[in-house]
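Researcher: Let's walk through a ligand-bound prediction step by step. First, I give you the protein sequence. Second, the SMILES string for nicotinamide-adenine-dinucleotide. Third, you return the three-dimensional complex as structure tokens. Ready?
Model: Ready.
Researcher: Here are steps one and two:
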Amino acid sequence: MQMEGLRSVIVRTDTAGYPVEIARGAVRHVAERMAAAGLRPTSVAIICDTAVESSAAAAVDRSLRDAGIPVARIAMNASEDMKTLGTLGDLCERMLADGIDRAGAVVAVGGGVVGDVAGFAAATYMRGIACVQVPTTLLAMVDAAVGGKTAVNLARPDGSLAKNIIGSFAQPILVICDPESLATLPTRELRSGLAECVKHAVIADPEMLAWIAERIDPILAHDPATLAELVERNVRIKADVVGADEREQGRRAVLNLGHTFAHAIEALLHDECTHGEAVAIGTLAACRLAVELGLGTPDAEHAVRSALQQIGLPTAIPSPRSVAALIEAMGSDKKKQGGTLRLVVPFALGDVRLIRDVPDPALDAAWRSVGAR
Ligand SMILES: NC(=O)c1ccc[n+]([C@@H]2O[C@H](COP(=O)([O-])OP(=O)(O)OC[C@H]3O[C@@H](n4cnc5c(N)ncnc54)[C@H](O)[C@@H]3O)[C@@H](O)[C@H]2O)c1
Ligand SMILES: [Zn+2]
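Model: Step three, the predicted complex:
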């Protein structure tokens, strides 16, 4: 059965090609979409976020059982501190106990936390089994579920979190986005997903800033038609970049725009802001850095600031932190390579580039422009 209004974006990398399908009610049609993608697993482990266990995950479960596929449902609390090797081990033990074998598959239903850890479980269980991503946050639909990065975090000796430090590139077989599954997503999480959309706009689609601003009311009201369009537009951008450079040897690094700043914010203020909020502030700081270095004009900074304000995303860190501590935290980000900090900055809207050897005074000014002191 074909779903009404099905939008499909193909991600084509050196090692894989798979569809990202976007449609209202898609969670009820997961089994048939898997069959259409050539995937007929003997059994499925649905690894889901407890927040969607009785909604999206239950619908996926029903669809698979109706198709005669045995299902084991494994729910987990999705918080950043659950992205651990311990959780990975627990998930794999459950899969083993439930009889999932090489011909089985993982269907991940949840936000980026569940997608990252369940994707890594699929990538490593029995040296890798098929994975289907069913993202249920806007952030996961437009970003985390697309592109095949899977990972868990590791604690540093000082107790801070080294994010996504153990993982693999493992592309899913299929990604299914149902905008209706966002109906229960808190507004704060919806806005967090919009931060990655703003990032995408600066990288490759400057007109999207105005597009989002004009539609901010239906977006925040969870209007499924507007959200479907938004998701498709962003998945196209991510698919283009990932298709050109699956393993982040070059071009894919542009997707880290704002993220070295964001990871420093998350390391120091993890209880105070979501990943998306940190990305919003980080993207703005990257815009200012370009101006400080004489590489970019203030237009990008103005456009991003006004988009963030219209969306209701923060433009400054929620409580003051010292520039020195933030710069120190940037240095421990794994985007650092060969001892030098590599940063992505916009030379103009739609033209972002990777730079290295950024002088401290410019970094200092960029941090101060987003409220550091
Ligand atoms: N693999 C990648 O390329 C990639 C890219 C970006 C982010 N990430 C990772 O993604 C994670 C962030 O993802 P996220 O923002 O989706 O966070 P998340 O998975 O923590 O979800 C955010 C919150 O929303 C809840 N939730 C999820 N779906 C819901 C729904 N439909 N209704 C109500 N509540 C719901 C969750 O329980 C959680 O409390 C981070 O760990 C980040 O490192 C990965
Ligand atoms: Zn991100």
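Researcher: And what stands out?
Model: The chain has a mean pLDDT of 95. Residues 143, 196, 259, 275, 279 surround zinc ion (ligand 2) (CB under 6 Å).
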